[in-house]
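Input sequence (257 aa), recorded before submission:
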Amino acid sequence: MNSREGNRPPENLDAEAAEPAAAQNTATRAVRSGEHQVPPHSPAVTPVYQTAPFMFDSAEALVAGFERPDQRGLYSRLANPTVRVVEEKLAALEGAEDAVAFASGMAAISGTLGTLLEAGDRLLTAADLYGGTAAWLAWLVGLLRRHEAVVATYYPDDEIARRQMSAGGAMVAFEVRGGLPAANRLLDSLRLFTIMASLGGVESSVVLAAVTSHKNLTPAEREAQGIGDGLIRLSIGIEEGSDLEADLAQALSRVAG
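Predicted structure, token format:
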């Protein structure tokens, strides 16, 4: 036995596994798809492989690794076993032939367009592109819609949203009267909402669209997309709702005053 035998990663991670039947429900696909562990040394849950290179017992095994189409368990920059399981699960859930996971949204966009487009091609896109949770969320929306400092509120609570979501969303956008100076004053007055460059997390956060996600658009372009200088976006975390409402109310009072 090679001296490294006991430390090598499981080479059977790329073993063929039965594809989930099309009739299987979503929960079953989420659990079973993409799992290729083979006994006797197979974990019940796919581990997070925190390594760049993987070891091989022989030159032959190394060559075979590079010849595998998916190059799983070879070099994480090419294909990481953990990431590959995620990709296969997503493909099964979406009913797709395959999926590719990227480290960021911009990486996904660049990879997709770079693969599909050639010199001279014309790309048609929507005009409104990305620029660079609980039931009590309605409390905040109600506060914003009633407050004199707010000129517009954007929250998906119409008939379509009620059909698509069971508990509302965690994102709210609103525009304050007074444009950028008023928006800056509101952000500086918040005590619980964390000012961030992007949104999402267990903590509630706030971002000013005109100087972050849509900074590279001209004022006219932002206005055409409904993004005024006073537009503020909130991501509601898991803190107590009444605390968040109180924080937002006191910050709005400073803007109104």
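Checked by second reader. The chain has two domains: 5-101, 137-256.
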